[in-house]
Amino acid sequence: MTKYGWRTIDIVIASIIAVTFGVIFWAWNIVWGATETAFAFFPPAQTLLYGVWLIPAVLAGLIIRKPGAALFTETVAAVISALLGAKWGATVIPQGLVQGLGAELAFALLFYRSWKLPAALLAGLLTGVSAAVFDFFAWNAATDLWDYRIPYALLTIVSSTIVAGVGSWALTRALAPTGVLDRFAAGRDRALV
């Protein structure tokens, strides 16, 4: 098996992360709906909550450290969310695919060799960019460019960089000492996480 070949444990853990976050996505959809009125003063600000939907792409990339981990995990989480009845329907599946591509691109740009905080920030940023681009055309095309779409996109990227980027890095760092990541490089080189 090559360095980048997937082991059974990689598939199992990526699937566990995806299913777990698919359920979290379902719950987060409810939170999103419940908080719409709280952001009525400036609706694009609600995207500060967006980063939670992008965590699995960055988290799986940081843990599994192999090509396709970010893309697979974010897409499967989106499928689970759709199956659980996401209010946005099956559109969340291609949305998850596009979001996963953003994080995957970040890890590919680093040749799948860097797993420190800057890599997590870049993955969070690029998955936020991919999410913003998808939403720009799929969900927000009828909204005003400067009053809604541009601030929505910028705040999505900020949320993704902080919540998905820093959050995934912190979660990986918190999990490593517990031993649950010992079968992964993320668990073995704890000093580098």
From TrEMBL:
InterPro entries: ABC_thiamin-permease_prd
Keywords of this entry: Membrane, Transmembrane, Transmembrane helix
Keyword Chloroplast among UniProt keywords: no
Regions that span the bilayer: 12-35, 47-64, 71-90, 119-138, 150-171
Any matching Pfam family: ABC_cobalt
Protein name per its UniProtKB record: Energy-coupling factor transport system substrate-specific component
Organism, as annotated: Actinoplanes friuliensis DSM 7358
